[in-house]
Design a protein that fits this description.
Largest interface: A-B, 25 and 24 residues
Order of helices and strands of chain A: EEEEEEEEEEE
Distance between the termini of chain A: 36 Å
Order of helices and strands of chain B: EEEEEEEEEE
Strand content of chain B: over 45%
Low-confidence stretches of chain B: none
Radius of gyration of chain B: 14 Å
Structural class of chain A: mainly beta
Distance between the termini of chain B: 37 Å
Number of strands of chain B: 10
Shape of chain A: globular
Number of helices of chain A: 0
Low-confidence stretches of chain A: none
Mean pLDDT of chain B: 90
Structural class of chain B: mainly beta
Shape of chain B: globular
Oligomer: heterodimer
Mean pLDDT of chain A: 94
Helix content of chain B: under 10%
Helix content of chain A: under 10%
Number of helices of chain B: 0
Number of strands of chain A: 11
């Protein structure tokens, strides 16, 4: 298996622009997670899905952030409009069943200027 | 101005020595714990896990110890190698599906 796939690996954009991050979980995994990692705050859970349904989005910073999972093999995290403080590495992770180990993708490094 | 970030604990060990990385967790009700390794520019990678009905679990060159009395978790790496240099995170499972990650410990192996 190729593992969790994320794209793009790097994104540089200007403040105010829309950013869309993409994730393909491991085939057969039923849970998907979006995390953000910064030096200031470490690794933070933004939102997670079980069977394509959002379960907990309490970690989403504000309304500028949204996430979707239209099917079992694809999820997006969108930031609109983006701000410099959104600069971070965004990780997607998936797990086979709830409460089991999560497998992380390589991350997307986002820079908002 | 100067930015303030998380102060990562650091550990430096000589190649071939054993390493011990410690973690204090917060929730006495947590019943599942994982150690992750994160190399520079990569995502966290699963190393080993342990459930609360155990106090020790061994893998290849790694051992995890769980002390529920004091809410403490440790990762022991035997015969540390340069490839072990990374940031190590402990994660505890709270209710449902949500893991909480520690701030991490940076391990540097000196050849």
């Amino acid at each position: 298996d190729a593992g969790v796939i994320q794209s793009p690996r790097h994104e540089v954009t200007e403040m105010g622009q829309e950013v869309t991050l993409r994730c393909k979980p491991i085939s057969g995994h039923n849970s998907l997670f979006w995390y953000r990692q910064t030096m200031m705050r470490g690794l933070e859970l933004l939102i997670y899905f079980n069977n394509n349904v959002p379960i907990d989005d309490s970690g989403m910073p504000e309304d500028r952030f949204s996430a979707k999972m239209p099917n079992a093999s694809f999820s997006t995290l969108k930031i609109q409009p983006s701000e410099p403080r959104d600069s971070a590495v965004y990780f997607c992770a998936s797990s086979f069943i709830q409460g089991h180990e999560q497998y992380f993708g390589p991350g997307t490094r986002l820079t908002v200027t | 101005g100067e930015s303030v970030g998380l102060h990562l604990p650091t550990l430096s060990v000589q190649e071939g020595d054993n390493s011990i990385i410690n973690c204090a967790y917060s929730n006495s009700a947590s019943d599942y714990f994982i150690w992750y390794k994160q190399e520079s520019g990569k995502g966290p990678q699963f190393i080993i896990d342990i459930r609360s009905n155990m106090d020790k679990r061994q893998g290849q060159r790694v051992t995890v110890l769980l002390n529920k009395t004091v809410k403490h978790l440790s990762l022991q790496i035997a015969a540390t190698q340069p490839g072990d240099s990374a940031v190590y995170f402990c994660a505890e499972l709270h209710t449902g599906n949500q893991f909480y990650f520690g701030t991490g410990t940076s391990l540097t192996v000196i050849p």
